[in-house]
Write a structure and sequence with these properties.
By secondary structure, the protein is of the alpha+beta class. The chain has helices at about 25-35, 60-70, and strands at about 10-20, 40-45, 50-55, 75-85, 95. It catalyses: an acyl phosphate + H2O = a carboxylate + phosphate + H(+).
Length: about 100
């Protein structure tokens, strides 16, 4: 597992994914992928059936996660992915499911 390198620029992106993304292992698969990529942040289900994630890492790590989130695990059917850059002070040392 890679770790977030605090000596490099850190990018933080809030992501909302819609489609068939609940009940298909999307969150746990996202956690596994985040650990492989080495990003920090979190992922959670929303009441409206979407999944929301905060991804934090180097620009390359964030891009790798966004690419994966557009597909998700095999059973998912992602309809739309919306992302918004966030400017926050907090640094997430790991990635968790909420």
């Amino acid at each position: 597992m890679q770790e977030l390198d605090t000596n490099h620029p850190v990018e933080t992106v809030l992501v909302r994914v819609t489609g068939r993304v609940q009940g298909v292992g999307y969150r746990i698969s996202t956690v596994r992928r985040a650990h492989l990529v080495g990003v920090g942040g979190w992922v959670r289900n929303n009441e409206d059936g979407s999944v929301e994630a905060l991804v934090q890492g180097t620009p390359e790590q964030v891009d790798a996660m966004l690419e994966w989130l557009r597909q998700g695990p095999p059973a998912a059917q992602v309809r739309e992915l919306a992302s918004e850059r966030q400017y926050i002070e907090r640094r997430y040392p790991s990635f968790e499911q909420q």
